[in-house]
Automatic annotation (TrEMBL):
Belongs to the glycosyl hydrolase 37 family. The lineage of its organism: Eukaryota, Fungi, Dikarya, Ascomycota, Saccharomycotina. Gene3D superfamilies: 1.50.10.10. Keywords: Glycosidase, Hydrolase. This is Trehalase. It holds the Pfam family Trehalase_Ca-bi. It catalyses: alpha,alpha-trehalose + H2O = alpha-D-glucose + beta-D-glucose. It comes from the Eukaryota. The gene is NTH1. Signal peptide: none annotated. It comes from Pichia californica. InterPro entries: 6-hairpin_glycosidase_sf, 6hp_glycosidase-like_sf, Glyco_hydro_37, Glyco_hydro_37_CS, Trehalase_Ca-bd. GO terms for biological process: trehalose catabolic process. Residues 239-262 have a biased composition (Polar residues).
Length: 942
């Protein structure tokens, strides 16, 4: 905690060392430099104009209304073509102007609609709106005051706001290069900014507020923007914004709930030190204008016609439109028109209009702050308030009719929604049958699964795919009065609960205080283990034979610890049921035939199953099957059908598909690391995950069950599981560590040797805690660079992947592609071994990819990224393409684990990097311009 005098010294130092030119400050610039439309017209100029506008020329009240237009100067200042001197500007007060304006308008055209303006509103309408603002249902998207209240005390750092941050600040101020990143006033980031999302479960449409008295605030902020060294504005100190939290709590500890390090985040009422308003806020909220859009359809139409030149219903840097649209402000009765300029603002406009239209609105008031919102805040806000909600599923009487449909399979039998029920779940069968009867026009098929589910049975229902029943709870005591638990789906084509996705989604959800679906996903896993024998790849019938990477123990502990911290609730029953299920899974799935290799004692991905996986994209197996089509002179479809029905026998194909199923069980579908070989590999990732199971089970038995947990009639002890973990650690060291290359490799149990594919999953060894500190150091120092690319960690090295060609198409889990789970596990692993600095650097790289794509491509958040692409990393041409990109107008889901990675990655960033991210500063530029002290905080060599 800083004492008063040191605080004032620091703030003095900051003040005196900062100079902000509202026309040059990069703080006022949110557009990425990659956006060609922003190159000459920074947001800074555009947004500054909203604060300081050229004095309107009121030539004569009796003259044409067009004399109020500032268009020529506006365009000038917007385009940046001529540097307008400050002397030409006056501080413009919208309210005065409005009064003035209104009286003139009244005398001129009372009640008449202007037609000489694209978006002039009907003045009478506007007055009516103003009068009835409390009851009107005209939506205001992004009312800045409301938005502010939804978030937290933004303009403040936590009072003992770690010296670390202050030092960093001071250092960065001295840095010539990064100084620009830390201009006049920092976006004060406080832990409370990550308070529980208020809009989860609701829409973000807020009640309109007209004539908000922002006048004095505006003036203050204008003053502080123009004269940064002048006395601090009193009013700015109370402003808030929705800027994300720092990665650390007040003591610099990670806020990721973890049983080793978890400490509760400060309550929203923690006393804070208020800091002066930031340029970000003054321009994005305080002086924010409100636009009135009198005809949403027409505006959308105009916007898309002009700007969506490639006609994909998104406005991106690929579009070649004019990149500008005029909107009239609500306060000026449409007289003041402002350019909405550049891809980012226009695409935000498209998104806001689309949302309003989907809510059935015809007109709207739109706050400028929604259009030029700091992209980091915007993405954070969308994930926490909208994406999670849209990805959440829960079985109810009506939702099941939609949930049970599947778009991945196109057979006749897939036309109707279908649900399969475990043979011993009579009450669920009754429940779904009743729904089916009640909504008979939906044709919901309800079917029992057999007691013994064989590979042949699963293959036989491939053309009749269905959702698999999951855990339910009673709504009342009445038989059959049930409902499902909430769970989160990955998104895009993946509309069911997946195995390992659920773990990462849980981390993301907990990080923003959303608990319920996390519990639901855990309950579903317990149900799956007890009814289907394993945690399923996902709950569709064609996934019945295989699992996915196991994370249940850590997932349960994260949830358990979270509940313990938040509500002091020790849900021992939940913990016990989950850990008993995990022990069953460990014994019966991962350390049993055929997954256990009895020779080494290591485990492999090795599911059962028959035939060609029906859920893959149609073209996936072309390169593999073409030689057989030629051999049998059959079309692709004919060959598949005959092979699946056992009419063609090809042992080599059987072997190929055995490994293909294993690849899918590994979650890394697909990759040349695993193709044609996977079931023979004891992979480093699986064995690290099992080591973690062993450690977690040992910990839980000792800590919560007095070292005795009864399982299947015998007593499980902590020592037993500790010993299993130590054995596995020895096996991993023996078979997988390669001293010469300082890397862990998969071990091939058939050829009895290490694979030579360099996979980033080697870093799971850090996450699981397999490495000694010495080995961790060697691994990090000698091998991390092999995977670190511009935008984070690639799945494998280019050398390992080899050359691609017609017969060797690119695979999505190979170089140059990068996936959220790898980033998250490596960040956490690095932190475990005290390399928070590198975790920060890697997080920055990844978050940059996400933010850049989000800004330049209409708010996109996709399943995976190309970590080597500096301009359009979301464009991934491999296998089924990139999920999350096919939306119209506005992205509504993002992608589950990628959403999570954003929230978790932000927690690894300090203020400096959050600011740089908000300005979409490329990692290369950001790191290059750091001074030596800053570099150490990112693990960069000085
Ligand atoms: O449909 C093709 C494959 O799709 C899934 O795999 C991919 O998406 C999953 C959900 O996000 C993810 O868990 C997996 O790691 C991805 O590769 C599915 O899991 C596969 O079994 C399926 O064949």
């Amino acid at each position: 905690m800083l004492n008063d005098s040191s605080q004032s010294k620091k703030s003095h130092r900051r003040k005196s060392s900062v100079k902000v030119d509202p026309f040059e400050s990069s703080d006022l610039y949110y557009g990425p430099i990659t956006d060609p439309s922003n190159v000459n017209t920074s947001f800074g100029r555009l947004r500054t104009r909203s604060v300081i506008t050229p004095k309107p020329k009121y030539h004569s009240f009796g003259n044409s209304l067009t004399s109020f237009s500032n268009d020529s100067e506006d365009n000038d200042s917007n385009s940046g073509s001529g540097r307008l001197s400050r002397a030409n500007f006056h501080i413009h007060n919208d309210d005065d102007h409005d009064n003035h304006l209104e009286s003139i308008i009244n005398s001129k055209i009372t009640g008449k609609e202007y037609s000489n303006n694209n978006h002039y509103l009907n003045l009478k309408n506007l007055r009516d709106l103003n009068k009835s603002s409390s009851s009107t249902n005209i939506p205001v998207i992004s009312d800045s005051d409301n938005e502010i209240n939804n978030h937290t005390d933004l303009e403040s750092d936590v009072s003992d706001d770690n010296d670390d941050k202050d030092d960093l600040y001071a250092v960065s101020m001295k840095s010539h290069s990064t100084g620009s990143l830390v201009a006049e006033s920092d976006i004060a980031l406080s832990n409370e900014n990550f308070a529980e999302p208020t809009e989860y479960g609701n829409t973000s449409i807020m009640k309109p507020k007209f004539k908000t008295s922002l006048k004095s605030k505006k003036l203050d902020s204008v003053k502080s923007t123009i004269f940064p060294n002048s006395t601090e504005s009193s009013s700015t100190s109370s402003f808030k914004s929705n800027v994300p939290l720092p990665s650390t709590n007040t003591r610099g500890n990670s806020l990721i709930p973890n049983r080793d390090t978890f400490s509760p985040s400060p309550s929203p009422s923690t006393p804070t030190i208020r800091r002066r308003g930031s340029a970000d806020m003054s321009s994005s909220t305080i002086n924010s204008k409100r636009f009135f859009i009198s005809d949403i359809d027409a505006t959308l139409n105009e916007l898309l016609t002009n700007e969506d030149t490639d006609q994909n219903c998104q406005i991106t840097i690929d579009d070649k439109g004019p990149k500008v649209l005029k909107l009239g402000t609500a306060n000026s009765a449409g007289f003041n028109q402002y350019d909405i300029r550049g891809t980012y603002m226009l695409s935000n406009l498209l998104q806001e209009l689309t949302i309003a239209k989907r809510f059935g609105r015809k007109q709207m008031i739109l706050d400028e702050a929604r259009l030029n919102e700091n992209p980091v805040s915007r993405l954070y806000r969308l994930i926490t308030t909208s994406f999670w909600k849209n990805l959440t599923r829960q079985v109810t009487e009506t939702s099941i009719l939609e949930m049970a449909k599947d778009t991945k399979i196109s057979s006749e039998g897939a036309k109707y929604p279908r649900i399969y029920i475990p043979y011993d779940e009579a009450e669920q069968f009754y429940y779904y049958s009743k729904i089916s009867e009640k909504y008979d026009s939906f044709n919901l098929k309800v079917e029992y699964l057999p007691k013994i589910i064989t590979d042949d049975y699963v293959k036989s229902i491939n053309d009749y795919p269905g959702l698999l029943a999951l855990a339910v709870r009673h709504k009342s005591d009445k038989y059959g009065d049930l409902e499902g638990y909430q769970y989160v789906v990955p998104g895009g084509r993946f509309n069911e609960q997946y195995g390992w996705d659920s773990y990462f989604e849980t981390l993301g959800l907990l990080s923003c205080n959303i608990l319920e679906p996390c519990i639901g996903m855990c309950e579903n896993f317990i149900f799956e283990i007890n009814h289907y024998g394993k945690i399923l790849n996902a709950n569709r019938s064609y996934y019945l034979c295989r699992s996915q990477p196991p994370f249940l123990t850590d997932m349960t502990l994260r949830i358990f610890d979270y509940m313990k911290e938040k509500s002091n609730n020790l849900d021992i029953d939940f913990l016990k049921r989950a850990f008993l299920a995990a022990i069953k899974e460990y014994n019966e799935v991962w350390t049993s035939y055929p997954r256990l290799d009895p020779i080494t004692g290591l485990s492999t991905y090795h599911p059962s199953g028959k035939g060609i996986p029906p859920e893959t994209e149609a073209s996936h197996f072309i390169s593999v099957l073409t030689p057989y089509c030629e051999k049998y002179e059959l079309s692709f479809d004919e060959l598949q059908e005959k092979y699946n029905n056992g009419l063609i026998e090809e042992p080599e194909l059987d072997e190929y598909f055995l490994h293909d199923r294993a690849v899918r069980e590994s979650g890394h579908d697909t990759s040349y690391r695993l193709e044609g070989i996977c079931a023979n590999l004891a992979t480093i990732d699986l064995n690290c995950l099992l080591f973690k199971y062993e450690k977690d089970i040992s910990f839980v038995i000792k800590t919560y069950f007095n070292n005795e947990l009864e399982y299947n009639g015998s007593i499980e002890t902590s020592e037993k599981w500790e010993k299993l973990a130590e054995i596995r650690r020895g096996l991993i060291d023996k078979y997988m560590w390669n001293e010469k290359n300082s890397l862990y490799y998969d071990y091939n149990i058939k050829i009895k040797g290490q694979s030579n594919y360099e996979s980033v999953t080697a870093f799971y060894a850090l996450w699981a805690g397999v490495c000694t500190p010495e080995r961790a150091k060697i691994l990090i120092e000698n091998s991390l660079h092999k995977f670190e690319e511009f935008g984070g960690l690639v799945s494998g090295t280019k050398k390992s992947r080899g050359d691609l060609g017609v017969s060797k198409p690119s695979r999505q889990w190979d170089y140059p592609f990068a996936w959220a789970p790898h980033q998250i596990l490596t960040w956490d692993g690095l932190k475990k071994y005290n390399r928070k600095d590198i975790a920060q650097r890697l997080s920055y790289r990844w978050l940059y990819l996400m933010t850049l794509s989000f800004v330049d491509f209409n708010g996109i958040v996709v399943e995976k990224y190309d970590a080597t692409s500096e301009r359009q990393p979301h464009k991934v041409e491999a296998e089924y393409g990139n999920q999350g990109s096919g939306f119209k107008g506005v992205a509504t889901e993002g992608f589950g684990w990628v959403n999570a990675s954003y929230l978790l990655g932000l927690k690894n960033l300090d203020i400096l990097s959050k600011r740089a991210l908000g300005m979409v500063t490329s990692p290369t530029d950001f790191f290059a311009k750091m001074n030596p002290t800053e570099k150490t905080k990112y693990g960069l060599a000085v």
